[in-house]
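G., the chain you wanted modeled:
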Amino acid sequence: MISSGRVLLTRLLRRQITLQTRQITLQTKSYLRQPVHYCQLRTMSERGAQLSKSAAKKLAAKQAKEAKKAETQARLQAEADARDADDYSKDRYGKEATCNSKQKSGRKWTEVEELSKEDVGNEVLVRGRVHLSRVTGKQCFIKLRHRYFSVQVVFVVDDKVSKQMVKFIGACPKESIVDIEGKVVIPDTPVESCSQKNLELQGLTFRVISEAAPQLPLQIDDATRPMEEDGPVVNQDTRLNNRILDLRTPTNQAIFRIGHGVVALFRDYLSSVGFTEIHTPKIISAASEGGANVFKVTYFKGNAYLAQSPQLYKQMAVCADIERVFTVGGVFRAEDSNTHRHLCEFVGLDLEMAFKEHYHEALDVIGEMFISMFKGLQKQYATEIDTVNKQYPAEPFKFIEPALRLEWPEAIQMLRDAGVEIGDFEDLSTPHEKFLGKLVKAKYDTDFYILDKFPLAIRPFYTMPCPHDPLYSNSYDIFMRGEEIMSGAQRIHDPALLEERAKVHEIDLETIRSYIDSFKYGSSPHAGGGVGAERVLMLFLGLDNIRKTSMFPRDPKRITP
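Predicted structure as tokens:
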């Protein structure tokens, strides 16, 4: 009986527990379906003891700070609203939306360099960079720069220009691009700091087209300052590391404008005397000039090389009866030379031409070409040359017509007469070249000359020997300010003679077989040469480093930007 009663009691208890569990579950689901109020999410502090005095003080301080912040924001907004209400110039200045070519306004801009006295009294629209800004009382002075030209703009508080507008203009970061409308006037005194010295603008509107960052890695004025002047100067690495800013200086704008002229005048002259421009491969199967100074690159499953010279392809074009050719393009030299005049990549200006009976026919064309280029640079780029000379003073480049031509023995004798010990057939070192340049300048008053008839032993295997003296050759170098800019020669166009000369130079014929074979089917006698555009520009302007004339120079230590 006792055992049966216990079993029955146990069953009753289990049933009661099950019913209670179900009831609790139903209540929980109902509770979760109800909305949760903030008062139900009480913290432990609210359910338990009151906040401590320290915590209460912190909470009160936080609330007071937030209230003060809100009050300050409201006051500033109210002041801004009041200023906007009082700012009668608010439609005359500000930041423009990003230009996305949405529409054409039909407005006409006047370039800073085009401003003239004929514009006095007229209103013009100009665009440029904020070079400098200075607020003085109720006036703001802006130096607006466009390339290597500049003009002063003055904003004065009046019935059109408000104080708020002047303040906004004065706070505009340097190098920002802006549009300004203004009236052209004659200043009381010449503005010596601007290229437009005898004109200035009375500012009427000011629109920011592209705002620059407030902190610049270099200042344009510092990058333009001549070395002899007091004040900070920017070193070469800083310039090249921030090349985009550095290129904005008036000096660099002028340098690369003249650089454009070097290439354009090269093209123009040769085109005028019957040359055809060609384009040659820069990826080649073998080193174009032999030796180890070549960049090797992966070419699918094999290797290739970057061209050291377009010479082979120029000669092939002549063999194909395109008798006068030139090319402009990249040249690559893997030379570990960290000098003032060497680059691993430069712009090559190369030419080759067939002649009838003497290689001087080609040499005459080359000399006349350079004279034409120098004349064109001096005539067409006088403003740019003057701009460069302000930062980098140099004596004007001198040349005579026709181009001075010396032969090797005469040059050696000039050096010996000046005390230099040098052998008859010894190659000229860089110091010898520079010294010879000074001697030539003193004697002939020219920075440009041609040195002809180099010793055969110091020239490449493809150079034609001199028919009058086998120790010399039909080859030449061309110099500017005592530095070599071009090496050239009559090329051997006879396959048998070419093989003979290659053997003398101990060159494996199979490595140059394709070059030799290019003359098997008949070739006109021809000559030519190549020059680096950057070196010509450097020496014409009298600059001290070729990195000043290469927009993005590549040397053994630099491959960026």
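Residues 53-86 form the longest helix (34 residues).

Shout if anything looks off.
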